[in-house]
């Protein structure tokens, strides 16, 4: 019976999320006529994300709590977060308003919301991580930081199951070396409740924001420290 309830609630959320997303489709022609105003598009994208969180709580019983908000310094930071599910990709728009998220280019092909993401502060990157893709990512990140926005990266590059080793790809060191903004670790345990194939289980996701990592002249040492800190915090959340 519990599996049937879980499946039913997961399906209800999936259908409702699709309908909610489609409600934004009629706005696209109007926004194009208005010249794609970035501020309005970002606001609408955050409204979309908040709606998903509300649907998730109402239909699947998944809520979230956060701790460590006081650890976020003023001004742009480099947010380094683990990647376990789809939850954090849209929840980040609510947790960190006006953040620019480094995300896989494939998301821009999604119906309706892909258009909003493309015209919001999203930084699409080729998953192959070619030299050209990294240069384009860096240029886009510099522009967002210059505009006063934080940059969020999922350094693992793809979703990992809870308990999997956390291993960073090249992007974190590149961004830290070139952006000159404080790195902040953000850990969560969304994968406990949002599992592969959108299998949703009721409960509360915890988002933990750690203090900024002190500057280091050796970029490799700092990245190794960031990887250890994220791994330890994620492990602690999974034990809780």
TrEMBL record:
InterPro entries, per database record:
Plipid/glycerol_acylTrfase (IPR002123)
User: What gene is this protein translated from?
Assistant: plsC
> Tell me, what's a Pfam family for it?
Acyltransferase
GO terms (BP aspect): phosphatidic acid biosynthetic process
Enzyme Commission numbers on file: 2.3.1.51
Q: Which organism is it from?
A: Croceibacterium atlanticum
Its pathway is: Lipid metabolism
Class of this enzyme? transferase
This one is known as: 1-acyl-sn-glycerol-3-phosphate acyltransferase
Keywords, in A-Z order = Acyltransferase, Transferase
Q: Name one GO molecular function term.
A: 1-acylglycerol-3-phosphate O-acyltransferase activity
């Amino acid at each position: 019976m519990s599996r049937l309830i879980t499946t039913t609630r997961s399906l209800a959320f999936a259908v409702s999320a699709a309908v909610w997303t489609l409600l934004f489709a009629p706005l696209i022609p109007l926004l194009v006529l208005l010249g794609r105003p970035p501020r309005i598009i970002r606001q609408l994208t955050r409204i979309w994300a908040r709606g998903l969180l509300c649907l998730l709580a109402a239909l699947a019983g998944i809520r979230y709590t956060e701790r460590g908000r006081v650890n976020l310094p003023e001004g742009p930071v480099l947010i380094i977060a683990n990647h376990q599910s789809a939850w954090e990709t849209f929840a980040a728009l609510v947790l960190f308003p006006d953040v620019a998220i480094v995300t896989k280019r494939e998301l821009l092909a999604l119906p309706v919301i892909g258009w909003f993401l493309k015209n919001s502060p999203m930084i699409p990157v080729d998953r192959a991580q070619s030299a050209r893709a990294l240069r384009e990512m860096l240029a886009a990140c510099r522009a967002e930081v210059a505009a006063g926005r934080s940059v969020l990266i999922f350094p693992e590059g793809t979703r990992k199951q809870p308990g999997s080793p956390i291993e960073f790809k090249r992007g974190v060191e590149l961004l830290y070396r070139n952006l000159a903004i404080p790195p902040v670790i953000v850990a969560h345990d969304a994968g406990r409740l949002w599992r592969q194939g959108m299998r949703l289980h009721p409960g509360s996701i915890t988002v933990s924001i750690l203090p900024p990592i002190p500057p280091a002249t050796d970029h490799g040492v700092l990245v190794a420290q960031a990887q250890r800190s994220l791994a330890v915090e994620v492990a602690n959340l999974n034990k809780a």
